[in-house]
Amino acid sequence: MEDIITKTDFKIISGFIKKICGISLDYNKEYLIRHRLCSLLEKKGFDSYSRFSKFLETNCTTSFNEELISSITVNESMFFRDMHPFDALSGTILKELFRDRKKINIWSAGCSTGQEPYSIAMVIDIFVKENSPEFDDVKYTIIASDIDPKVLAYAESGIYSKFEVSRGLDDEKLAQYFTKQNNGYYKIKSFLKEHIKFVKVNFKDMDIEIFPMFHLIMLRNVLIYFCGDLKTKIIKQVENILHEDGYLIIGSSENLYSLQHNFKYEIIGNTYSFRKIV
Question: N or C: at which end does the chain have fewer Cβ atoms within 10 angstroms?
Answer without folding.
Answer: C
